[in-house]
Specification:
157 residues; alpha+beta; two-stranded antiparallel ribbon; 4 helices; 35% strand
Length: 157
Amino acid sequence: MAKKHQQKPANLLAQNKKARHDYNIGDTYEAGLALTGTEIKSVRDGKMNLKDGFARIRNGEAWLENVHISPYKEGNVFNVDPLRNRKLLLHKQEIRKLDEATAGKGLTIVPLRVYLKHGYAKVLLGIAAGKHNYDKRETLKRRDQDREIARAIKERY
């Protein structure tokens, strides 16, 4: 069920901008997030950081780890640990595919963006392979060349 999600959701809450710079992203999957009441309020306020986050498959369940959700300012005693592991809601087949894809191949699962869909927080996960420094430089050079070409075309017409 690997889907290519190219459109940018209008209700984007958090985005991992460094992911496409640091990794080559393969298939993407959409997963639900199991959050507490105060966590979803913080997420809706945009108080979420995906930068160092990753997903891991353990005991047939998918977990989102190292993602920081700031405590809700009105949450008092109901706030939880900002870096706690959060369960990802996926179908068994999707979990199996993710587990097979990342088993011993040097691949990992990274969160790309978090958005609202029908009132629920969803995370877009990508199967990622790390880039070397020369790959990163090549990507930057290609992007700059594309910008120059677009600028030249725009000036000409």
